[in-house]
Write a structure and sequence with these properties.
homodimer; eight-stranded mixed β-sheet; Rossmann fold; inorganic diphosphate phosphatase activity (chains A, B); Phospholysine phosphohistidine inorganic pyrophosphate phosphatase (chains A, B); disordered N terminus; magnesium (chains A, B); nucleus (chains A, B); globular; 289 residues; 2 domains
Chain lengths: 289, 289
């Protein structure tokens, strides 16, 4: 079902970049798995999206093993509760406490640093910020606001930042674009760059690939980076982000995967697998489960 | 009225950074002056804006001297004809042939390189592109589109670029923001950066601070950079751009000027003056006119 040698395997063959013995060692030491969600568990689109074949079962199989499981998503177009409810309706065995998403992480940071945000975020994620003080803002939080990224709204956020002595900008993710059923869509990173340039600041990114974000999932499992494996469809933010933090990372050939990812100039996954189901097959087989 | 020594003079005192003898030498060799328009001649705002006190008279005084005069603007919210007509109504002695603006310069480049643009520009500047072929676009032109910078419109421009084998993006200026009577407004540079990041390309800038743009005004006067002085309110694009091209540059403390400009880490104007009227006073006094 997979092979350990060839680097540029065809799209039908799982391809592990590590040497066979390193891979065995890695799997043996594994205590937890972190899964990206969109593009790994399901494809987004009208009506909320559809599960990727085999992924509902794959999640069940990890949960039935001795591995811990958490989910790390940069999803910011819904509250975590509504987002998890959507996945449950698709058949996934998943609960809110297992999901790490940027909005709750940002709320924690805002409270810790006594910051009052001006929010440029999707309406559906606003409830996450319900109990955060927002009057007289002293920072800006930008997330994937989609159609709310009007000139007026971006200008309003800019005006808040530029009048601060030391502008503080949080960006929930730094993606360039994503794919929906009707084509490519600009993601939050593009508007983060716009505000960074306008105000000559560097945004603090909350979400993947920020190390703090992976850390929160691992702290929750009580394990170290070298005991954890990330599985995602975004080579740079999922796989590269996890690797920078000391985790191993597999890329699935679903979601936003593009064949050119396997020749990326700076990020090389520890392995490329066709989908989550195949990844779980390989992991559990190596663990003799 | 001014002093030659102190670097960080208060806002009421003109401050020349050059040594007194260098300044005298510069003024003596001067053959032409290039003026930025918005923030130097007038403040924009409702009804087209209002002249900055003393600037109508200052333009007249330069024209009555032995100095040549041209105007270099990054204005792209109107055709050059309509823009000049507005300035004439404010009382300025100015003609279309004296004004260098990015749209006509871009049209020349598009025709020379057989490029068909997708335009993300203000409706009022569209007529400048009337005789440019625009079907099946193979490049994107972005200018200050203001309220037309919707998510949908930026996404449309992005989709044109991302499907090109080698995306070509022109930006008419690279300003961060400008000031209108109702406050600061995001400028084209912010959206240029957004598209650059989304598509991993570098835009070709037409307008200040591109050297080609200053060159066109100087070629028209038949003078060399060291014989020309730029006066603008934008430290980086007007003053820094002109200096990079070998001209001298004064910053006026009107328009988008901010006191922090006088401590900018990379750009130092050859002098800071309160307004255009004061600049012209100093220049003509040194020339004994």
């Amino acid at each position: 079902m997979y092979r350990g040698a060839s680097r540029y395997a065809g799209p039908d063959t799982a391809c592990l970049i590590m040497a066979e013995k390193d891979w065995k060692e890695c799997i043996k030491n594994l205590k937890g798995v972190v899964l990206d969600m969109c593009g790994v568990l399901y494809d987004s689109g009208e009506g909320g999206g559809t599960p990727i074949p085999g992924s509902v079962e794959a999640v069940k199989r990890i949960k039935a093993s001795d591995l811990q499981l958490r989910f790390c998503t940069n999803e910011t177009q819904a509250t975590r509760e509504k987002f998890v409810a959507k996945l449950q309706r698709m058949g996934f065995d998943i609960s809110v406490s297992e999901v790490f998403s940027p909005a709750p992480a940002t709320v924690a940071i805002l409270k810790e640093r006594n910051l009052r945000p001006h929010l440029l975020v999707h309406d559906d994620v606003l409830p996450e910020f319900d109990d955060v003080e927002k009057t007289d803002p002293n920072c800006v939080v930008v997330a994937d606001a989609a159609d709310k990224f009007s000139y007026q709204n971006l200008n309003d956020a800019f005006r808040v930042l530029i009048q601060l002595e030391k502008p503080v900008l949080f960006s929930l993710g730094r993606g360039r674009y994503y794919k929906e059923t009707d084509g490519l869509k600009l993601d939050v990173g593009v508007y983060m760059k716009a505000l960074e340039y306008a105000c000559d600041v560097e945004a603090e990114v909350v979400g993947k690939p920020a190390p703090m974000f992976f850390q929160s999932a691992l702290t929750d499992m009580g394990i170290q980076p070298q005991q954890a494996l990330m599985i995602g469809d975004d080579l740079v933010n999922d796989v590269g982000g996890a690797q920078n933090f000391g985790m191993r990372g597999l890329q699935v050939r679903t979601g936003k995967y593009r064949p050119s990812d396997e020749k990326h100039p700076t990020v090389t996954a520890d392995g490329y697998v066709n989908d989550l189901a195949e990844a779980v097959d390989i992991i559990l087989k190596h663990r003799g489960q």
